[in-house]
Amino acid sequence: MSKPTPTPALTPQFCFNTRVLRDFLRLSRASIDDSISTTLNALITPASTSPFDPSSTSVRNPTLPSSLTRQPIPSSTTRTFLDNVLFPSWQARMGVIQYCTSVATSPDPDDPEVLERETLNRRDAERVVDERLDPYSGRFFPREARTEELASILRNEVAVEGIVRARTWGIVTDRCEGVGGNWQAEFDRWKDQSGGRRA
Questions:
Q1: pTM for the structure as a whole
Q2: What are phi and psi of 52, to 5 degrees?
Q3: Phi/psi at 3 (nearest 5 deg)?
Q4: Is the pLDDT of residue 69 over 50?
Q5: Which distant-in-sequence residues (6+ apart) come within 8 Å of 72 by Cβ?
Q6: CA angle, residues 50, 52, 56, in degrees to nearest 5
Q7: 3-state class percentages of the chain: helix first, strand second, coil last, to nearest 5
């Protein structure tokens, strides 16, 4: 069975390295949400074993007979998958996004570009703007602080996360017995039951 991507050590440096932050979120989505149909197909084969054995789906077989691809997945198998794989993956990503959001909204005394930005702002204040001579002379594009850049990236990632979860939940509710309703309600129920400790 697919496993949630391990949560990296959360530090401000991790958050400000936006490439690494995005890579973590992308890999986590790719390993669980983007391959949800294949994962659900793999859950059908071992459903005859009770209780569900996660190691039985460690190898995926994407060429299942068409008669199996629409077979509903038993609710006990689904619940194990949701509680041990899908929801912990979502929790891990949300924990990273929440932590990095707190970093983005906190003061950043270690910003290496603060002096450069202040110099550019001073130069802009001293500029003489005569748009009759140069219509572009009024243009000034201040550089964002790294906290502002991080906050912008995180707003986009929160929107992507909502879309990914809605898509994944639609596939899960279509394929699995005993699953329905809103993903947010089910996720909140899982967090209440697990205490959110499975991140």
A1: 0.70
A2: -60, 135
A3: -120, 145
A4: no
A5: 175, 176, 177
A6: 115
A7: 65, 0, 35
